[in-house]
Each structure stands twice: as structure tokens, then as C-alpha cells.
Amino acid sequence: MRRVPFLAGNWKMHKGPKETKEFIVELFAAIAKDTSLKGFLKENKVELGIFPPFVSLETAGREIASADISLSLGAQNMHWEDSGAFTGEIAGKMLMEVGCKYVILGHSERRHIFGESDETIGKKMNKALEIGLKPVLCVGETLEERDEGITETVVKRQLEEALRSLREHENIKDNIVIAYEPVWAIGTGRKANDEDAQSVCAYIRKFIEERFGSTAAEGIRILYGGSVKPDNAKGLMEQKDIDGALIGGASLDVGSFLEISRNTIEALQ
Ligand code: PGA
Q1: From ligand 1's centre to the CA of 85, what distance in Å?
Q2: What is the mean pLDDT of residues 138-161?
Q3: Nearest-CA residue for atom 6 of ligand 1
Q4: What is the pLDDT of residues 34-77, one digit of tens each?
Q5: Do the beta carbons of residue 59 and residue 19 sit within 8 Å?
Q6: For FRET with 38, which of 83, 132, 169, 265 sits at 20 to 30 Å CA-CA?
Q7: Stated pTM of the model
Q8: Residue among 205, 229, 231 at smallest CA distance from 216
Q9: Ligand 1 atom closest to residue 108's alpha carbon, by position in its atom list
Q10: Residue 228 — left, alpha, or beta (φ > 0 → left; ψ -120 to 50 → alpha)?
């Protein structure tokens, strides 16, 4: 059975509460007019999600709760404790309180600009799963690492560290999403070609199979991220191990976000 594709918009540091509300109103109005997409959403054949900045989450949560179209909500980061003296940080439980179902963990901008380590990402993974928040775990190599031919080694290390304390019986397939995002493809307009993206996603699935068994591997959703746009989405979604996309720039505009969604549906048919 085909896994339900997930199109997740990572808004990064864009859109405060006002713009967030405008986006959601516009998105729902456009979906309401699109019977095909509306049907797919209703039958859970595709999942759309947005990941706005922290201050916009409550507004987004409220808008989503009052609508009859399904849209998942997630945050872009969290702390690994429930509360405490951690100035400037946000706890996972607080995110759930405003309606978040997902949280992005280990995005390369967090790793490279803010110095997040595999170890802290592992702690956040454990906490998110403990409280019932679903992590979208990001992994991916830099350009130097790709040129050195160590993409799989890097991805394997990131997966091992992030998933270290999880056990086979934990419901990996429904509770974790993995996003393969080559660092050199993020925000650069330079998407990985479909075959290379597929090959790393297949490697990730094999890693999950060896570590957690075949049910986990067959069910877990693996997304590709890095310069996904309306014109390149279909080719990606046709790859057998790619189950959706983590979309940065192109998710900020309702038109392009929906075009990516429609192209994904087309790839499924
Ligand atoms: P991009 O960002 O689509 O703008 O390249 C993707 C991401 O960082 O998640």
C-alpha cells in the first residue's frame, strides 16, 4: 500500500500571525473550489501541513480548528525539557497546547547556523515521542561531504544519533517522518536530481529496516527537501521511496504550495 504523501511547508522566519491567518484563509478558499484536491484530503490520500514561526502557531491552530478542511500544524523546533530555566526556548507540550501535531527537528539551518548537535537532536526526538508530538527529523549532507562521496556515512550517523534510544516496538512508522534534505539544495534553486534523491531515501528506508524491522520501513514516510518547486515536484513524487516534500520558499505562496500538491496527486495516478 502506498504511504500517504505529506507536503509540509517549512516557513522558516516568515509570516507573523496576521500573514499566517491570511495565508490559511486563502488556502482554504482555494481548496474549497478544487474538488479533486478536496476529495483527496477528505479521504486522507494526501496530507498538507504548515510549519509557521512560534508566534504564529496559536493563530494557525485556531484557524485550522474551525475549518472543515484538514491541514496539519507543526513547529520548527522545540526544547527537550518540559519546562525550566531555558531563556528563549519553547517546550513541546506548549506546542501541542496550541494545536501542533508535528515538530521539525535537526533542520540543517539549526545544525549549521545555531550549532545543534546530533546529541541534542536525539534528546529532542525522545521528548517529542514521549509527549506524543511527531518529529519530522531532517538529515542530509553538505556539498563537501557529497563531493567526498560520504553522503551515506553522514546520513547514517545523523540517523543513528537521533534514533539511538528508540526501540523496535515503538511505533516508528506512524510517529516519525524523516526528511532527506541535502544542505547544498536548500534555498539554492539547485534540487538534487530525482535518482540521487531516490537513492538516498532508499538508503534511509534500508537503515530503518535493519534497525526497526520491515513494518517500520514499509510504513515510515520519507520526504525530500531542498528547492522543491511546482515544476519539479512530479518527478520527485514518482520515486518509489519519496513520500512527499519539505518545502521552504515555495510553501510561502498559496498558489505554488497548491500547485505542488496537485502535481503530487498527479504523480500518484
Ligand atoms: P527550500 O527549503 O525549499 O527553500 O530549499 C527547504 C527546507 O529548508 O526545508
Answers
A1: 32
A2: 96
A3: 248
A4: 999 999 999 999 999 999 999 999 999 999 999 999 999 999 99
A5: no
A6: 132
A7: 0.97
A8: 205
A9: 8
A10: beta
φ, ψ of residue 68 in degrees (nearest 5): -105, 15
Residue 237 grid coordinates:
513524487
Express each pLDDT in 196-235 by its tens digit: 999 999 999 999 999 999 999 999 999 999 999 999 999 9
**Residues 74-105: pLDDT tens digits?**
999 999 999 999 999 999 999 999 999 999 99
The catalytic residue positions are: 107, 181
**What is the residue type of 219?**
G
User: Looking at the DSSP assignment, which residues form a beta bridge with residue 145?
Assistant: none
Query: Do 268 and 44 form a contact (C-beta atoms < 8 A)?
Result: no
- In the chain the first and final C-alpha atoms are separated, in Å, by 14
- The residue behind cell 532508499 is 202
Residue 240 DSSP symbol: T
Question: Could you tell me what percent of the chain has a pLDDT over 90?
Answer: 92
Is residue 216 within 8 Å of residue 173, measured between CB atoms?
Answer: yes
In the block, residue with C-alpha cell 523546533: 77
CA dihedral over 244, 164, 104, 194, signed as positive or negative? negative
Do 152 and 145 contact (CB within 8 A), yes or no?
no
Pairing of strands 244-247, 177-180: unpaired
> What is the model's pLDDT at position 191?
85
- Name the residue of 10, 107, 109, 136 whose CB sits within 8 Å of the most ligand 1 atoms, as the mutation to test its pocket: 10
Q: How many residues does the chain have?
A: 269
Complete DSSP assignment for 110-128:
HHHTS---HHHHHHHHHHH
Ligand 1 atom having least distance to the Cα of 246: 9
Cα 248 to Cα 263: distance, rounded to the nearest angstrom: 17
